[in-house]
Design goal:
Blueprint (H helix, E strand, L loop, with lengths): L4 H9 L7 H8 L3 H13 L18 E9 L4 H9 L4 E6 L6 E7 L5 H8 L6 E8 L13
Antiparallel strand pairs: 1-3, 1-4, 2-3
Length: 147
């Protein structure tokens, strides 16, 4: 799908997920049906997903860690998909640099770092090493509630 300036403008307005399509249409001087059609097309093509996000530090007992993963294999996309299905994983990125994958993981008091590694990561074969970065303070970090 080719994205144009109108699509980008609509996406920017949707950052506030509670803004109605009518409000967006009015602000962009478009028909509401035009905005609805474009939003549906963006969703169908996997360009846009509308979801509720939470500020993890605002929920007692929750925190976020970032995990760098080094693999024994170069089948990065397959391993990335495997990691993306683990409990607590918000996102997985195949990256350049000293790690093969970077994970963003949401944890809570019942499902902490020990449980993440012993119950989830331990199931994935071919992990050479991991390094955990605990997020003590964040700016603008919002994540889907995946636990």
């Amino acid at each position: 799908m080719k994205i144009n300036e109108t699509d980008i403008a609509i996406i920017k307005h949707l950052r506030d997920g509670r803004k109605s399509l009518k409000q967006i249409a009015d602000r962009l001087s478009l028909a509401e049906n035009t905005v609805r059609t474009r939003v549906n097309k963006l969703i169908e093509n996997g360009v846009l997903e509308i979801s509720g996000l939470v500020d993890p530090k605002s929920i007692p007992g929750h925190n976020v860690v970032i995990v760098g993963v080094k693999l024994q294999t170069m089948n990065l996309m397959k391993k990335g998909e495997e990691f993306s299905t683990l409990r607590g994983v918000v996102s997985v990125s195949v990256v350049t640099g000293q790690y093969d994958l970077i994970l963003v993981v949401l944890l809570n008091e019942e499902f902490g770092l020990l449980e993440f590694y012993s119950q989830e990561v331990s199931r994935i074969k071919g992990v050479r090493s991991v390094e955990t970065f605990v997020v003590y303070k964040d700016y603008n970090l919002k994540v889907p509630y995946v636990l």
